[in-house]
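hiii, so i know i said id send this last week but things got crazy w the move. better late than never?? heres the sequnce for the chain we talked about at the cafe, plus the structure i predicted for it. fair warning i was half asleep when i ran it
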Amino acid sequence: MTGPRPKLAWSDLPGARVGVWGLGREGRASVRKLRALGVEPVLVDDRPASPDVLATGDGGLAALERCDVVIKTPGLSRYRPEAARLSELGLPVVGGLGLWLAEQDLSRVLCVTGTKGKSTTASVTGHLLTGLGYACLVGGNIGVVPYDPAEERDFDYWVIEVSSFQATDLPYTPPVTAVTSLHADHLDWHGGVQRYYRDKLSMCSQPGADLTVANGDSDLLRQHVGLLGPRVQWVSQGDEPGAGWMEPLGLLGRHNRRNALIARRCLAALGVPGAGDDRALRAAAEGYAPLPSRLAPIGTIAGVMFVDDSLSTNVLPTLAALEAFPDRKIALIVGGHDRGIDYAPLAAGVLARIAPTLVLTLPDSGPRIRAEIERAARGTDVADCPGLEEAVAAGFRWARPDGVVLLSPAAPSFGRFRDYRDRSEAFAHAMRAIC
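okay and structure toks below
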């Protein structure tokens, strides 16, 4: 991080000259919030879609320099030269989530982060709270923006998913936080792996921090325990053997079992009545809908299960997806936008499987993945495919009669698809084309 986080709240902004830099989902919510406060902001974006918005590189930065406060959307890196320029001028560059946290009752807020697993953990926690009879908003990086005027009403609890981008903007930490995993990611935004780790975990140790509930099976998290705040409770896959209370959640994979255990431990740390009652939690778990594109079964054809894990954008979730089906043959579809990440751990995970595995690779990172697997063990079943439709058809033929076709790309969808949802839709379309 560069410099201390400014400790401002939304209520400090009326009467100030405020710039909003970046008009994505959170940027637009910031504009609505400011206008509800009677503030007409200066609007700046890298690629303006309206004549009322200035381009960052064409007068926008100069306009921001004349503001008293700049609210930056999380997707814009804090380490960009423009952000450094604003900081050099002494301008507070803040995030909307940090402004919101500054005036919340943090004893009723849970922040959840992690390279992967944070969305599932946040959604399970919110579902359990609702099932136990509490009004709960699940938002942040998932769901709604908590400071959007359309969402501003009183809740018993707020469960906020925090990305590594958002974490760099938080001046406060609720007493209870959760960390689900740690693995190198978003290195282009953060500028290096160690900075990513520091930024990602920084939300655990700002003023107000007390307890971090963390994934005890992560060697990387244990190595970085000094960044996890004053106290840490570790949660491992083997905790609470049986744990029948979570069966109604319908989650696949041991990692998701751990995510559910983290959710329960957080409820207990928040002092939620019912968190220690298996029967009450089982009833609260009923009706949970697993999040789409996160190890989600989407259909079965001729005994072959198709599983959509399109949101898998690095090696860690793909390894977890493979572990979810230890005894079934898997046709694994991998590859996408090439960020240059190390695929050796993926090759090791594939080769460690006892059940048969066919790896079907997609552009652009597919050839690198194939080369890594073949380097580790020649003769492994791996093949390059020109596109997703061809990979799905080949995977189905190989996986019959009772295997799994698993889309878990270990790569972003940029270039060939609009986003991970578009990739999910293409996977489902290719499955239906088999019929």
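btw The chain has a mean pLDDT of 94. thought thatd interest u
miss u guys!!
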